[in-house]
Amino acid sequence: MKTWLIRLSVTLNVLTLAVAAGVYFNGASLVRSFLEPMYERKFSFFDSYPIASGATVFLGDSITEGGEWQEVFPALRAINRGIGGDITTGVLQRLEQVSKAAPERVFLMIGTNDLTHGPDSRDTSYQQYREIVQRLQQESPRTEIFLQSVLPRAADKQEEVEAYNAVIAEIATATGTTFIDLYPAFLDPDGSIKDAYSNDELHLNGPGYQLWQAQLQDYMN
């Protein structure tokens, strides 16, 4: 059998098992159990390699993790603190790794995973987002904080994403931080993320990161 057929067969088997498991287990709990070991490995790595003084930190989930930020902004001391699958709960748990370094800037993007496997209550997710910002301000008062909107996803998530972004904008106003609304630049008229920037309606490709870079450029000067 050809290699690609073997891979296809394995993939289909995995998907079948995942669907079967979903019948017996809560989907969000299943996702969390899959992501926890990866989170622990990244947490350990970040503990072992602390953030240098004067850094610009990109903090978030897999969308942040996927950016090679030192290449995107070569003039900055750019540090990637994204973890795939992370939610507001996870960022809170590891926030001290960021705040104790007193970075020059923090660009936060978090919340898209809260829509699928975050806290049971959306209000809890919003409160945890507020707590992230408030703790950063208290623990690292000289750090400039930028709150980036959640990016578009599939069209059926449009209402949820826009509701979350409205809360982020409110938090930015209430805390005196800067809200960067990336959402419109990535939005397709059908309500999803534009195909030019993502091949799975969630994660970004090269042009997606180039667009993100252009949206942030003015905040780097």
Automatic annotation (TrEMBL):
<dbReference type="InterPro" id="IPR013830">
    <property type="entry name" value="SGNH_hydro"/>
</dbReference>
<dbReference type="InterPro" id="IPR051532">
    <property type="entry name" value="Ester_Hydrolysis_Enzymes"/>
</dbReference>
<feature type="domain" description="SGNH hydrolase-type esterase">
    <location>
        <begin position="58"/>
        <end position="211"/>
    </location>
</feature>
<protein>
    <submittedName>
        <fullName>Sialate O-acetylesterase</fullName>
    </submittedName>
</protein>
<dbReference type="Pfam" id="PF13472">
    <property type="entry name" value="Lipase_GDSL_2"/>
</dbReference>
<dbReference type="InterPro" id="IPR036514">
    <property type="entry name" value="SGNH_hydro_sf"/>
</dbReference>
